[in-house]
């Protein structure tokens, strides 16, 4: 019984999943920050492009 409990708590299967989740959260924070800083410039660029394309 003791060895079964020890092996249950010693498993590290979820560790990789948590690491991937943390990496995804970090990437999301960086993307949101970049879009916040560059959002208006990108919006102006697309508006100018749309104005150029329309006849």
Which characteristics define this entry?
single chain; 55 residues; mainly alpha; 2 helices; 91% helix; 0% strand; membrane; transmembrane
Span between termini: 78 Å
**General shape:** rod-shaped
Give the C-alpha Rg.
24 Å
Structural class: mainly alpha
Question: How many beta-strand segments?
Answer: 0
How much of the sequence lies in strands comes to under 5%
Helix percent reads over 70%
Low-confidence stretches: none
Looking at the chains present, what oligomeric state does this protein adopt?
single chain
Instruction: Give, in order, the helices and strands.
Output: HH
SS element count, helices: 2
Overall average pLDDT = 82
The major beta sheet can be summarized as: none
If you had to describe this structure to a student in words, what would you say it looks like?
The protein is mainly alpha-helical. The longest helix has 41 residues.
Brief overview:
Keywords: Membrane, Transmembrane, Transmembrane helix. With 55 residues, this protein is an all-alpha fold. It contains 2 helices and no strands.
SSE order and pairing:
Elements: H1 2-10, H2 13-53
């Amino acid at each position: 019984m003791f060895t079964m409990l020890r092996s249950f708590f010693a498993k590290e299967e979820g560790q990789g999943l948590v690491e991937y989740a943390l990496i995804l959260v970090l990437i999301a924070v960086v993307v949101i920050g970049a879009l916040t800083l560059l959002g208006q410039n990108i919006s102006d660029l697309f508006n100018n492009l749309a104005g150029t394309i329309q006849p």
